[in-house]
Amino acid sequence: QVQLVESGGGSVQAGGSLRLSCAASGITAITDSMGWFRQAPGKDREGVAVLWRGSGATSYADSVKGRFTISLDNAKNTLYLQMNSLKPEDSAMYYCAADRVYWPLLRVPGFTYRGQGTQVTVSS
Question: Which band of pLDDT confidence, cut at 50, 70 and 90, is reported for residue 32?
Answer without folding.
Answer: confident
